[in-house]
Design goal:
single chain, two-stranded antiparallel ribbon, 2 helices, 96 residues
Amino acid sequence: MHCASVKPGVDCTFMSKKGCSFNGGKCHTIVESCEGCDRILMWEDAGYCGSFPDPKAKWRQGHCNLATHVKKEKKENGNGNKINPLKASKRKAAGR
């Protein structure tokens, strides 16, 4: 359905016949960590996330899993080779 509270006319998954079903009844503006994301929708001089109505909650536990501007860092072992976890556990059990 289309939003009737904050962004009239924009398609929203949280809108129902009774109004906005999101906690608080409306979408919240983006936080500073969201700057640079491709999912930002500008509406009347304010930015809103196109995928989640409360961006602050997404950034509370670390990086937002929907952020397009954040690149995940790959963990590497000392020599740069990949280690098969199954073989590593068998080696550890054998005492090597």
